[in-house]
Input
Amino acid sequence: MPAAPSRDGPRVNEEIRAPQVRLIDQDGEMQGVMSAREALLRAYQVGLDLLEISPNAEPPVVKILDFGKFKYEQQKKKNEAKKKQKVIEIKEIKVRPNIDENDYQVKMRAMKSFIEEGDKVKVTLRFRGREMAHQDIGIRVLERIRVEMDPMSKVEQMPRMENRQMVMVLTPR
Output
């Protein structure tokens, strides 16, 4: 069985090493099995390139086409796929254990908008000084956030301590 192409992309013209190939012409018509040399001559006669479509087939399948146009189409497809991809960002919201109700509502609105946009939200609750002695207050704040965000998000990472802060990660449903 012949090895797959080693360089990036399929083999073209003289790079095709198989003695016998199955040829598809420029109109998409199957021409049958023939020598690679004969297939290459046919491609040159119509002023196009011979491209190895399926190198692992027995015999390999080759097609007559314009290689420059083929590369351009592949690049266009790749760019189109990249456009459609949504990059998920992690947005961070910082809260304190003794957060005021109005501040809390502002942070909740921000979290909801981030989740609706499809981003993850990292909720960081920082303890200062003697607040470390009252971690239960911090846990209650994070639990309240989790309950209110439950309809639109799920907890990816449960609240856990990292030095003087508690971290929880929410992700869209």
Q: What stands out?
A: The beta strands are 20-24, 30-35, 49-54, 61-65, 90-95, 120-126, 153-162, 165-172. The mean pLDDT is 89.
